[in-house]
Write a structure and sequence with these properties.
Blueprint (H helix, E strand, L loop, with lengths): L7 E11 L4 E3 L7 E4 L7 H7 L7 E6 L13 E5 L14 E5 L5 E9 L3 E5 L9 E12 L2
Antiparallel strand pairs: 1-2, 1-3, 1-9, 4-9, 5-8, 6-7, 7-8
């Protein structure tokens, strides 16, 4: 029986619940999430959890926020002028916006606070500060070619 090892292509389904009760799943379109173990495309704790599993195996694992999206940090809040916000967007607390970073990457941010002349943007990942509880099922394992 093939076990998950480094460099295997793995297909998984998972359900996840955050420490704050937010739930999400990979099962929305019935297509498994595929990744090559060890390439770093999944959370480190998630990849570590699938090592040694076999096709059809199921496992429940808790991944601490430090091994997931990190701690929520006040340092990741920035203040921008209201007139710098995109035109035609109703700026309210929680509004998601796209922002281009200094290295040219697009990054989603959320409006944390709206003031008369300024807007406070939260650059933290939406799951920062959350421990994650995953139910993982291995759908297939393929050796990398």
């Amino acid at each position: 029986m093939t076990q998950v090892t480094k460099d295997c292509l793995v297909g998984v389904h998972f359900d996840c619940e955050t420490s704050k009760g937010v739930k999400f799943s990979s099962r929305d379109n019935d297509q498994p999430i595929e990744f090559v173990v060890g390439e770093g495309n999944m959370l480190k704790g998630f990849e570590e959890a699938v090592y040694g599993m076999n096709e059809g195996d199921k496992k429940t694992v808790e991944i601490s926020s430090d091994d997931a999206y990190g701690s929520w940090s006040e340092e990741n809040l920035i203040t921008a002028k209201r007139h710098e916000m995109p035109e035609g967007v109703d700026i309210q607390v929680g509004t998601p916006l796209m922002m281009r970073t200094n290295d040219g990457m697009d990054r989603q941010v959320h409006v944390k606070e709206v003031k008369e002349e300024e807007v406070v943007l939260d650059l933290n990942h939406p799951l920062a500060g959350h421990d994650l509880n995953f139910n993982i099922e291995i759908i297939f394992i393929k050796n990398k070619v």
